[in-house]
Amino acid sequence: MDVAKTKLMVVSRKEVIDDCIYIAGQKLERVRKYKYLGTWLNETWDSDQEVKTRIEIARNAFEKLRKIFCSRSLKISLRIRLLKCYIWSILLYGCEAWTIKENLRKGIEAFEIWAYRRMLAISWTHKVSNEEVLRRVNQKRELLQTIKMRKVSYLGHVFRHDRYELLQLILMGKVPGKKSVGRRNEQKERCVLRNIREWTGVTSATQLFRLARDKIKYGELIANLR
Length: 226
What we know:
Layout: E1 7-8, E2 22-23, E3 26-27, E4 29-30, E5 33-36, E6 39-42, H1 48-64, H2 66-69, H3 76-91, H4 102-120, H5 130-137, H6 143-159, H7 165-172, H8 192-200, H9 205-212, H10 215-223
Parallel strand pairs: 1-4
Antiparallel strand pairs: 2-3, 5-6
């Protein structure tokens, strides 16, 4: 173990002050967030920072290729194909693990329209509606739908392969103890399974797990996502 490269992060609903861990006489540094395999993880264990970071990385990538995406010498259909290949792929990296809340949904959809507006050279002062922008590029909103399909598909992949036994245990497991006192915050308690259950219309987690193991029925479920 390289102690100098080892950090400590605490994931807890309660504030933890006594977090001292020593290895070979050296105290581990506590961090609030860290990047693992290109993805940001934090103490609150939500996807807000990661999604916002991916959007900014994708925006910067767009700006670097702006001359291509905004070139009038190329057909808009070709530019959109390039956009989906080089920009959407950057944005959607690791989206299978995201928990989509309302603010993140708005941010993702706003970035999608932002890219199309730049390609068409439409300023916000032109007062062109988002629907009109989509009509001009002959596209539908697809980023959020792609995220839904990839998240739901990945759940089926996990439950149909024995090598993901640990992941299955985590998803189906129950946390012992009582719930915290007070009104529930739906935004904070939004989780991966809650996302999938809302999108598929399957209210029971047990039923969802059973369907995930049936490739044919689960494929039909994915094709009819809300």
